[in-house]
């Protein structure tokens, strides 16, 4: 989402967006880099590698689906976006698939 908005992503951008400390984000970026999820250039610009892109796309799908669903239930947009952000990181793949199937099944009726 940051990349879509800014055209680039740096650790400082992530810290500001998520309201995490710069040292916490730095440690997380090091772990992601060492595990092959991201690459960082000499200017500090972060690029998702294939493994990281797959996870990012899955999280974004969850975020979009959950926030739209919550707003359809009548939750205020700001709250729906915040709650979707929290839910998307902790919900199991099984539970997400079940919710998605249920909602999509209801839309066909």
UniProtKB/TrEMBL annotation:
<dbReference type="InterPro" id="IPR036388">
    <property type="entry name" value="WH-like_DNA-bd_sf"/>
</dbReference>
<dbReference type="InterPro" id="IPR036421">
    <property type="entry name" value="Fe_dep_repressor_sf"/>
</dbReference>
<dbReference type="GO" id="GO:0046983">
    <property type="term" value="F:protein dimerization activity"/>
</dbReference>
<dbReference type="GO" id="GO:0003700">
    <property type="term" value="F:DNA-binding transcription factor activity"/>
</dbReference>
<dbReference type="InterPro" id="IPR022689">
    <property type="entry name" value="Iron_dep_repressor"/>
</dbReference>
<dbReference type="Pfam" id="PF02742">
    <property type="entry name" value="Fe_dep_repr_C"/>
</dbReference>
<dbReference type="InterPro" id="IPR036390">
    <property type="entry name" value="WH_DNA-bd_sf"/>
</dbReference>
<feature type="domain" description="Iron dependent repressor metal binding and dimerisation">
    <location>
        <begin position="50"/>
        <end position="104"/>
    </location>
</feature>
<protein>
    <submittedName>
        <fullName>DtxR family iron (Metal) dependent repressor</fullName>
    </submittedName>
</protein>
<dbReference type="GO" id="GO:0046914">
    <property type="term" value="F:transition metal ion binding"/>
</dbReference>
<dbReference type="InterPro" id="IPR001367">
    <property type="entry name" value="Fe_dep_repressor"/>
</dbReference>
<dbReference type="InterPro" id="IPR050536">
    <property type="entry name" value="DtxR_MntR_Metal-Reg"/>
</dbReference>
